[in-house]
From TrEMBL:
Native species: Micromonospora sediminimaris
Leader sequence segment: none
Ranges in a coiled coil: none
Main location: membrane
Family membership: Belongs to the ABC-3 integral membrane protein family.
Example GO biological process: transmembrane transport
Membrane topology reported for the UniProt record: Multi-pass membrane protein
Record key words, sorted: Membrane, Transmembrane, Transmembrane helix, Transport
Protein name from the UniProt record: ABC transporter
Length: 293
């Protein structure tokens, strides 16, 4: 235990912990809207488009993160416009993003002079190599996403729950949909260094699915999901220090373990409540006749 605590005296572990906490808080705050819209896997599609941006950055020797933000944002906006116009199904658009993005990324990385380790860092995450600049970028962008998701919660919930009702109510539906698309792209990009593009959707969706087992209202589910994401982020970094495992994978494993534990406990509690004997109904009072003919 002392050895693991001593590891957090090093700057790279402190930066990894701060990054994981920010991402653990931000990803579920956005993910609850994606789950509401039944787009739980959109993070995978946009993540693979971001991989194309990483490949372009490595090929042209520019910042891979900036190129990933640009590619992910363009991909998210395109899929939203396709979905809105209804020219093809949302699932098909996601499939095109998924396969085209990862194929383009692999081709561009192969054309560059980068080694496979550079690609693996973005596929599976490399949180322990985050610099101060990376953490500052994660903090700024993560804060912006949190402000948007919490500040615009009533409007975003209305759009995700019933888009036609939101349009009739006078809400700027297209602008709100594009905002969700752009913030999804930003979240995917900042989480790429933490958990990798192959595991991003897990951090967006699993805490929300866990919270739904024990909460009912949208606001309470959002708060619980953010708390669970925060726990998974912090405990995952500690687990990585203890077991010498990949930080990103450790965060996701703990998030899934939390889902399993909470689901089993919730199911047991519901079964216990059903098995509890119900009190007998009180007898109805008899009518009393005070007089007669």
């Amino acid at each position: 235990m002392e050895r693991e605590l001593n590891l957090f005296q090093y700057e790279y572990m402190q930066l990894a912990l701060v990054s994981a906490l920010i991402i653990g808080l931000t990803a579920p705050a956005l993910g609850i809207y994606l789950v509401q819209r039944r787009l739980a896997l959109i993070g995978d599609g946009i993540g693979h488009v971001a991989l194309t941006g990483v490949g372009a950055g490595l090929l042209f020797q520019t910042s891979p993160v900036i190129m990933a933000v640009i590619a992910a944002t363009v991909g998210a906006v395109v899929i939203e416009l396709i979905r809105e116009r209804g020219r093809t199904s949302g699932d098909l658009a996601l499939a095109l993003l998924f396969y085209g993005g990862i194929a383009g990324g692999v081709v561009l990385v192969g054309l560059s002079d980068s080694t496979s380790s550079n690609l693996n860092a973005y596929l599976f995450g490399a949180l322990s190599t985050a610099s101060r600049t990376d953490v500052a970028t994660i903090a700024v962008l993560g804060t912006a996403v949190l402000i948007a998701m919490i500040g615009l919660r009533p409007a975003l919930f209305a759009v995700c729950h019933d888009e036609e009702y939101a349009r009739v109510s006078g809400l700027p539906v297209r602008a709100l949909n594009l905002l969700l698309a752009v913030t999804t792209a930003i979240t995917v990009t900042i989480a790429m260094r933490a958990v990798g593009v192959l595991l991003i959707s897990a951090l967006m969706v699993v805490p929300v699915a866990t919270a739904q087992q024990v909460t009912r209202g949208f606001r309470s589910t959002m708060a619980a999901a953010m708390a669970l994401g925060l726990f998974a982020g912090g405990a995952g970094i500690w687990m990585a220090a203890v077991a010498d495992t990949a930080p990103g994978a450790s965060v996701v494993v703990l998030a899934i373990a939390s889902f399993v534990v909470v689901t089993l406990l919730a199911a047991g509690w519901r079964r216990l409540r059903r098995a509890r004997p119900q009190p007998a109904p009180a007898p109805e009072p008899h009518e009393v006749v005070l007089g007669g003919s």
